[in-house]
Amino acid sequence: MTIDHDRYCDELVRQTAELRATLSGADLSVTVPTCPDWTLRELATHVGRAHRWAGRIVSTKATEPVPPKEVPGGKGPEGDDPAALDAWLAEGAESCAAALREAGPDLSVWSWAGETTASFWSRRMTHETAVHRADAAGTVGAPYTLPADVAADSLDEWLDLITFVQSFKQSEAPLGEPGQSLHLHATDVPGAEWLIEIGEQGFTWRRAHAKATVAVRGPLTDVLRVFHRRLPTDTPTVEILGEAAVFDHWLATTAF
Length: 256
Known about the structure:
InterPro entries: DinB/YfiT-like, Maleyloyr_isom, MDMPI_C-term_domain, MDMPI_metal-binding. GO terms for molecular function: metal ion binding. It comes from Streptomyces hundungensis. Pfam families: MDMPI_C, MDMPI_N. About 45% of the residues lie in helices and about 15% in strands. By secondary structure, the protein is of the alpha+beta class. It folds into two domains: about 5-145, dinb family like domain (Four Helix Bundle (Hemerythrin (Met), subunit A), Up-down Bundle); about 170-255, SCP2 sterol-binding domain (Nonspecific Lipid-transfer Protein, Chain A). The protein has a five-stranded mixed beta sheet. The protein has a two-stranded antiparallel sheet with strand order 1-2. Strand 1 and strand 2 (about 35-40) form a beta hairpin. Helix 1 runs parallel beside helix 4 and helix 2 packs antiparallel against helix 4. The longest helix has 23 residues, at about 120-140. About 40% of the residues are buried.
């Protein structure tokens, strides 16, 4: 984790504001290509519901899962008024950030990923919002940028989550063959490089520059979106060097 708790809280609100701006004036009934089960309205409702759920977990100091149906306001606004949806999104982000700020980073609360502190939720909600903002931007053809430290931390966090999930899924489809490796290389941010190495017992990752079975090179935000499956692997700004099938397999088996 390279960003502190207070910054995550601020970024959660900022990312939500940018998501709201992306949705402003859009046809909310259109399907989101990168989340084809959802319309833009359903994508927005998912994000706002997540904010309220996380805020409820933190504000009640929950030590076990909170049923989403018990979260006040979690269903979203009544009707199809875009202004009501916009206000609901803003309110959810602000209330979640307020609960997180009041709790502080070290408050012990339930989470689904092993790290049981409020800082897990400030980080998770920041990146949940940022990645779904990429979905919305791709749907409406809007530009998409992230601060470099947020984009890099999003890659770190996703690798942390995959590590956690894989610890329970060793008997399922492996992420690759032992000895294979992946190198992510941001060409526009010094030091923004990752090495993923697949072994007999799963995989390990670290920030490093090294030769790998396959390399993914390009601007950091584009590498991030490809790694999150929010851009196709043949995106012109991103190069796939080496054994592309290894990267394709990684993306397919981490699509949980």
